Amino acid sequence: MKNIIIASTSTVHGSGYLEYILSELETFFKNANNILFIPHARPGGISHDDYTKIAKDGFSKINKTIRGIHEFSNPVEAVKNAKAIFAGGGNTFVLTQQLYKNELIAPLKEAVNSGTPYLGTSAGSNICGLTIKTTNDMPIVYPPSFNALGLVPFNINPHYLDPDTSSTHMGETREMRIKEFHVYNTPPVIGLREGSWLQVRGNNIVLKGNLKARIFEYNKPAYEVDAETDLSDLK
């Protein structure tokens, strides 16, 4: 049975790394003391080792140990043997490229669909959807495919931002960009605001956190849903 947390971000304003969700993660990872970390998204271009240290420091607060997948000689076996998996944020195109390069797409899907607990934040959440076409990141590398893990039957837009009515900026809003996506694509998109996450248990998907999410469906007006809304039928 799938057991997934798809979080908009690792850090909310005014708090430390994963601090806003640590109590949830303590329960989520209760049966896994060791967590396999996928640092390939490399926020700001930092090294895999430096990113892994950030994750280690964050999880040490709930007495969990972290090991980066880059430390293993066989990444595929590392995924297959993992008791739990965390894919961090950064650049979604880089993360996706590296997953394809290391032949990890199929093993990750199999592991998570078989019940290995999986936490994704930002880029690590983007790859849970059908494709990465609704990421906010620059395409600084070219992955072999935009197809992602397909752990949920829709796309994710982490860090969803509402229009700033006081701004003089005349560029596209996040909502406009998602509407552009729906000119050429039909899957729904969930706009996850900072501090929100999706809890996936088997086929059940529920919005968690204190904020609403914005839902975009093909040929329908966008709408808001409250925390604790069941989104299992969104497809």
Report on this structure.
With 235 residues, the protein is an alpha/beta fold. The protein has one domain: 3-Layer(aba) Sandwich (Rossmann fold), CATH 3.40.50. Helices cover 26% and strands 19% of the residues. It contains seven helices and eleven strands. The chain has helices spanning 22-28, 48-60, 75-81, 92-101, 105-113, 123-126, 174-184; strands at 3-7, 34-38, 65-68, 85-87, 118-121, 155-157, 189-191, 197-201, 204-208, 213-216, 223-225. The chain has a seven-stranded mixed beta sheet with strand order 3-2-4-5-1-8-9. A four-stranded mixed beta sheet has the order 6-7-10-11, with no helix packed on it. A hairpin with a 2-residue loop joins strand 8 and strand 9 (204-208). The chain is globular, with a radius of gyration of 17 Å. The mean pLDDT is 96.
List the helices and strands and how they pair.
Blueprint: E1 3-7, H1 22-28, E2 34-38, H2 48-60, E3 65-68, H3 75-81, E4 85-87, H4 92-101, H5 105-113, E5 118-121, H6 123-126, E6 155-157, H7 174-184, E7 189-191, E8 197-201, E9 204-208, E10 213-216, E11 223-225
Parallel strand pairs: 1-5, 2-3, 2-4, 4-5, 6-7
Antiparallel strand pairs: 1-8, 7-10, 8-9, 10-11
Protein name: Dipeptidase PepE
EC number: 3.4.13.21
Pfam families: Peptidase_S51
